[in-house]
Amino acid sequence: MVQSVELLVDDATDAEIRRQWSLLTEAGLPGPSPDHRPHITLAVARQIWPRLEDALTTLTFRPIPLRLGGLLIFGSRHPILVRPLVPTEPLLDLQRRVFAVIAQCPGIPANVRPDAWTPHITLARRLRPQQVGEAFHAVSSDREFAGVGVGVRRWDGDRRREWSVLS
User: Fold this and answer.
1) Mean pLDDT over all residues of the chain?
2) Among residues 32, 38, 29, which one has the least CA distance to residue 132?
3) b/e map of 131-144 (b: 16 or more CB within 10 Å)?
4) Can you tell me whether residue 37 is helix, strand or coil?
5) 72 Rama sector, left if φ>0, alpha if ψ -120 to 50, beta otherwise
6) Which domains does the chain have, with CATH numbers?
7) Counting CB atoms within 10 angstroms of each CB, which of 38, 40, 142, 164 has the fewest?
8) What is the C-alpha separation between 156 and 29, in angstroms, rounded?
9) Is pLDDT of 31 > 90?
10) pLDDT tens track for 35-61
């Protein structure tokens, strides 16, 4: 499965994303699993070695102001609806530093490399192509909003558990 390092958002941003998830679910669209939590994925690997995980805890971290933008679709065969983040130097710097720590791990997809990373929060995945319009419509009246990245967690997709790495 997936091992990841993720930026968590403040309570107000968490609530706003969950509200949007509810709008999508009410529209009959696929929602996140019950254990899903709003986050920005900073790095992904098939395995993150313990010594590198320990190295993550030595990184400096300060809360990061975030600006969530409009809507984007990733993919075409299995579209994913996301809210992109305006890339800022503090956000890009954090992602570069996290990636530098885990860069040796196996199974890192190309789209999380610093020169290819698109910061975002996922709203809906596993959409059918014919559902894209409905998904956009369900949350299209929502505007850009500000938030804060408040901590970094490790997510173990195999065991479906999380723990704090930086706060």
Assistant:
1) 93
2) 29
3) bbeebeebbeebee
4) coil
5) beta
6) 3-166 (3.90.1140.10)
7) 164
8) 26
9) no
10) 789 999 999 999 999 999 899 999 999
